[in-house]
Amino acid sequence: MRRDQGTGMSLPARRLTASLMLSGAIMPLNALPAVAQEATGQAPSLAAMVEAGSLPPVAERVGEEPEVVEPLNAIGTYGGDLRIGLRGSSDHNHILRVVGPQGLVRWDPQYTEIVPNVAERFEVEDGGRVFTFYLRDGMKWSDGEPFTADDVLFNIDDLVLNEEFAPTPPRYTSGGEPMQVEKVDDYTVRFTFKEPYGDFLAELASPLGQHPVLYAKHYCSQFLPTYNDNVDELIAKNEATDWQNLFLQKCGDLEIPARWGNPERPTLDPWVIKEPYVGGTTRVVLERNPYFWQIDTEGNQLPYIDQIVAPIDQDVESLILGVIGGRIDFGLRHIDPPANRPVLAENREKGDYHFFAAEPPGGSNMIINLNLTHKDPDLRELFNRKDFRVALSLGMDRQEIIDTVMLGEGEPWQHGPFEDHPYYHEQTAKQFLEHDPEQANALLDGLGLERGPDGVRQMPNGEPVRFQVDVIPTFDPVWVDALQLVEQQWAELGVDMEINPMERTFFYERTSNSNDHDAAVWNAKQSWVAGQIPQMLVPVHHDSRYGIAWRDWYLSGGESGEEPPASIKERLRLYDEARGMTDPEERRKTMLEIAQIAADEFEVIGVAKAIPTYGIVKNDLMNVPEKMPSSWYYATPSPTLPQTWFWKDE
């Protein structure tokens, strides 16, 4: 099978993107003309099943109101596999990015506005307090059962708002109270908030906003005691600890491998699990959903591609070899550090692929979070001294790191949106970037951290200034290489930093759940627009590793965790206000006010500006853009609609 390069699309300027993101977050789309079209085309394998009487006709399967999608360049043809590469046992979000979070709404391919998805249309009323979603009449789950408003109520009332299952995520609250959902009719649901919530649609468009339509009531309700008097038998049979654990085993959640571990679970996705993502497996396979609810402009049911096949490799080097050897058809995640580009460029002809551009919306490739809520009181006191954090920043030679590790690409940067973005905040991005070891040593001297006989500074208790930085080597190999240079640079200041590499599952448990870390590395590719959690400004997310105990306090409404200082409290208050704002300019000003407070505190340490990266795509894989936004909140590449990609015929 030969493959041909698509012609792609251009990305708008970041300034236009950001402003449209905000206005799109409250824009009702009910005024857009609906396209009524009956599905007539389908994959040959499904046509054979219809002929045999084992599957309903395609027009019945997609319902009366399928979404009509215009492919990027051409109407596709059916068939073939799309091969992607997974890294290890915790790369579930790679599957999510390709299959897509099929929520009520989604971002358009350019990341400029929010468009209907599972919902056929929506309305926003009462100043951003009331959101009405009109579902697609006749839409079905992947097993052929109807998808209706009852599924949405099950997801919200029995799970999202059920504190016995899990705490209600902040994205479903406003004014300190959870939203309310009501069934208007079988295909209409209304969400009501206490206060205006301008960010809500953007939250729903993010990968973490799929909860209202994630679970099929007719299947997943059997794992709740409310619906099944015999749930204890299922708990014992499946060796679960309780009904909550049983539910996650069988129905999964947004960001856990179990989401892709049960072929029996019905979904709304374009492809459904055939070979599950479970321990010990060597590959994951998803096959087309015969009831998927999108069609192209000629009435052909999507997706075009039969299967997604994802072999599992244990390291990035194996993924690179897979690309070069022609065994991966689309790749971006894990393979895009600058160090990999030369070898991938050199082997394009051999691997029969070309590059596409992946453009971040802002931020940094690498952030170091000192744990300001450390369980050790001495390290906590040290880390909470701003002069200590400033000294570490001034003690970093970022240009050496960029030249040595990043092949000279990039520029020193703390974090935050780029200069041409309306949310740009200069102090956040550029303070304390200069390499000034003399000033750094003076600050450390001023803190009373005298050097011991071995040259390592000592804390007041006589213990050395020594801490570990947790890092996932396989997530981004640049991180470990950069940390090795930082380790040397900080050693010159008398600070003994040790690199602590670990597997991703253990990293999350240690840094995001148990709060057992000294410091940790992550990225901060953000622009702070609606739908993006600004976790380096406010501790509201598991990636806010400078303040996990503060995050727990915020998410629990003060019931757990640790009460934060006044500066954090004020930012959390302003953040809650910003989430509710329906005026884009008012929201922007409030976020910049938050940024100013955070910049004055200087809690996190960045390394370099997030640079445009690249992905690879086979030459005969059609309808793949030449450029696409690169962001977790966009869930690259899913808004480009991989269900419209197809293989060029011979």
Shape: globular
Give the distance, in angstroms, between the N- and C-terminal Cα atoms: 6 Å
The number of helical segments is 22
Main sheet: strands, sense, barrel: 5 strands, mixed
Residue-averaged pLDDT: 92
Number of domains: 2
| Multimeric state | single chain
Query: How many individual β-strands?
Result: 26
Within CATH, the superfamily of the largest domain carries the name: Periplasmic binding protein-like II
> Looking at CATH, which topology of the largest domain would you report?
D-Maltodextrin-Binding Protein, domain 2
Signal peptide: 1-31
Main location: periplasm
InterPro entries: Peptide/Ni-bd (IPR030678), SBP_5 (IPR039424), SBP_5_CS (IPR023765), SBP_5_dom (IPR000914)
Family: Belongs to the bacterial solute-binding protein 5 family.
